[in-house]
Amino acid sequence: RKEVEQDPGPFNVPEGATVAFNCTYSNSASQSFFWYRQDCRKEPKLLMSVYSSGNEDGRFTAQLNRASQYISLLIRDSKLSDSATYLCVVKSWNNNDMRFGAGTRLTVKP
Amino acid sequence: SQTIHQWPATLVQPVGSPLSLECTVEGTSNPNLYWYRQAAGRGLQLLFYSVGIGQISSEVPQNLSASRPQDRQFILSSKKLLLSDSGFYLCAGRDNSHEQYFGPGTRLTVT
């Protein structure tokens, strides 16, 4: 089983739609969680950290369920510029590295 | 925040040739440094990480090696490239914050 699993998609949605991505992780010692965004042929960039209480940044909402070892990202009012691959990232207290999911690809269409 | 520099951006090399990719960091001291590879349409695979000068941990057996001769320099090498070494190579750094910063990447094609 992979440490971090994501639905690869692709998700094709119209502008203005609400879309949700899910991610599960296998290591119960995981302590830090992130969503990264990667544009085509570019490096990943941090989109937002995920806090235990859930957090919101504009149209983006991230939630964490430690009991189910599950992270989600909700994008409201999708824009064309949201088209990208979204990577779920998990860090454990006993690891020096971060574990990346394979990513979920999103295409927002006019 | 830190900045990660990588070069070259694109590289085409024949099978059996050597490889040297360099990554440098500015804006922080004693960062953790990482080399990842991303095959086309695939996720990020961690190849090596380093917590300090001369300290290298390898995640997967392969014909690649890494070195950290200076605090802010991380080098990925190979003596003889294989076709399967083609991919997008990303260097990343992380300081005391949890955020991991990536360089712009090197797209390697082995022919």
Give a written overview of the molecule:
The complex is a heterodimer of chains A (110) and B (111). Chain A is an all-beta fold. Helix content of chain A is 0%, strand content 56%. In chain A, strands 2, 4, 5, 9, 10 and 11 form a 6-stranded mixed β-sheet that branches. A 5-stranded antiparallel β-sheet of chain A has the order 1-3-8-7-6, with no helix packed on it. Chain B is mostly beta strands. In chain B, 0% of the residues lie in helices and 59% in strands. Chain B contains no helices and 11 strands. In chain B, strands 2, 4, 5, 6, 9, 10 and 11 form a 7-stranded mixed β-sheet that branches. A 4-stranded antiparallel β-sheet of chain B has the order 1-3-8-7, with no helix packed on it. In chain B, a hairpin with a 5-residue loop joins β9 (87-94) and β10 (100-102). The mean pLDDT of chain B is 91.
Topology:
The complex is a heterodimer of chains A (110) and B (111).
Chain A: E1 4-6, E2 11-14, E3 19-25, E4 30-38, E5 45-50, E6 55-57, E7 60-65, E8 70-75, E9 84-92, E10 98-100, E11 104-109
Parallel strand pairs in A: 2-11
Antiparallel strand pairs in A: 1-3, 3-8, 4-5, 4-9, 6-7, 7-8, 9-10, 9-11
Chain B: E1 3-7, E2 10-13, E3 19-26, E4 32-38, E5 44-52, E6 55-58, E7 64-70, E8 73-78, E9 87-94, E10 100-102, E11 106-110
